[in-house]
Amino acid sequence: MKAFVARSLDGVESLEIRDIAPPGSLGPGQIRIAVRAASVNYRDLMILSGAFSASTIDDLIPCSDGAGEVVETASDVWRVRTGDRVALTYNPFWIGGFFEIPAKPLGRGGGVHGVMREQVVVDQSEAVLLPSHLSYAEGATLPCAAVTAWHALCGPAPLLPGMTVMSQGGGGVSVFALQLAKLFGARVIIISSSPERCARLKSLGADETVDYRADAEWDAAVRNLTGGRGADLTLDIGGAQTFERSLRATRIGGRVALVGLLTGPPVAASSIFSSGTITPIKVGSRQDFESMNRAIEFHKLRPVIDSRYPFKRFPDALLHLKSGKHLGKIVVEFD
Question: Is 46 helix (H, G, I), strand (E, B) or coil?
Fold first, then answer.
């Protein structure tokens, strides 16, 4: 079968397509999935660039997020059946409860092989049924970005109608946070990099937007939009360069969900003692994924897909992600 393999961790250029042996016979509790689609995340770029090389396996098959069809099950499998449409969990070992660091902390696409191959064999506990109205391409957008957004919004504390949520940019997590927060009846403020992107985010349901290139003090703008109070919940995507402003944009007693590390990990901030709770988000558990899927199914929510690439152009999908010009998710569809 065909698979993308990273022959080194020197960036996207290190990827190559190889013919590799398909997974062998199933063991107890295992299922075989024919992968139909995948989606890319900034974390995939970081892994391929060697940011976490000490925890990354050799000849890595990259990419954490995939969806496909169950084509075979072991005799003792009970969670899924042949023919089911499923997505794989981002954290293979986190079923529910509190997060505990596993033996291979990078998870799928880093500490264990990812989904950029025609077949995978996994334990049945790693598969989640897709909402019935979603395609494989739409389902492949969910495991990392959507579950991250869901967990950030309502995992550590309930999100209630009328609360104000602030997020950053038009990437997968922010767009899912916008879509999901509106299901809760929340007010959503998003900062983005141009009038055009702000207009697009408003068309997707954002109540207010701030062009951070035109208004560098976007934290003050968020406070002005909330009558000086600040957001109840802020999703910090940028990391080091945005974290302090995220704290200042959040009301006293509110919460900052530390989601992304686009500009590196944040350092201690001078305003940290005058803010509320800070919660690092480790994507989410399988139970988070299943809870989110029930909401997606009920509301018939559809992920926003920016662009689609065929399997052989997986590197191009990653380069498009790296450019930062996307809005929503970038999907790779298998032949």
Answer: helix
